[in-house]
Design brief:
Nucleotidyltransferase, domain 5, 39% helix, alpha/beta, globular, disordered C terminus, five-stranded mixed β-sheet
Length: 198
């Protein structure tokens, strides 16, 4: 049985984007949800997942395909956003598990899109901005991007940058680096504080 605080969902999203402003009537929407499951207690990455999401109010531009590798045909074969959120809850226990992302963009994108589409927000309240935590852990003056953080930590970039699944996997490795210096907020001591235990 999964223990409270044992697993962390690391989430990275890719969204429709353009070289300039969005075309009239289009808005940026999530087209890929990458998820890496980190076993906080064992300190290892245990799973990597990808959910493709079919946009409803935008299309995948050539610029977006060049950046993310995702084609219009690929995302057209994905699930709609409401179902993607349901998959997070059903298959990845997103309301039960704490979660993390590199910065606050991913959290805000979910909040905005859930609000706009009247979709139930799929996460609980225990979110960690891993970029901020990494910056504090290593005493850096500026918050680095994911690639710069990997370089600073002496870790390789695995897979393709701007692939949600690969980025989530790489952020999972950075989470483990943060945990190694006892700075991760999901530590046993912090979980006890959150739940009011001793």
């Amino acid at each position: 049985m999964e223990q409270f605080g044992q697993f962390l969902n690391v989430v990275d999203v890719e969204a429709t984007c353009w070289e300039g402003r969005p075309p009239p009537g289009e808005v940026s929407e999530i087209i890929e949800i990458g998820l890496c499951v980190v076993d906080v207690e064992a300190r290892r990455r245990v799973a990597k997942h990808r959910i493709l999401v079919r946009p409803a109010r935008s299309s995948v531009s050539a610029f977006c395909t060049e950046l993310t590798g995702l084609t219009p045909a690929e995302v057209e074969g994905g699930v709609d956003f409401r179902e993607a959120c349901a998959v997070l809850e059903r298959e990845h226990r997103s309301r039960f598990r704490a979660w993390a992302s590199w910065g606050d963009y991913d959290r805000r994108q979910f909040e905005r899109q859930c609000s706009d589409g009247r979709v139930s927000y799929p996460f609980g309240s225990r979110h960690t901005n891993a970029k901020r935590t990494f910056t504090d852990c290593f005493g850096l003056r500026r918050k680095p991007g994911m690639s710069a953080a990997l370089e600073h930590a002496g870790l390789p970039l695995e897979g393709r940058h701007h692939s949600g699944a690969d980025d989530a996997w790489n952020i999972g490795a950075l989470v483990l680096e943060i945990a190694a210096c006892e700075s991760w907020p999901g530590s046993e001591e912090n979980v006890r504080q959150v739940t009011g235990g001793r």
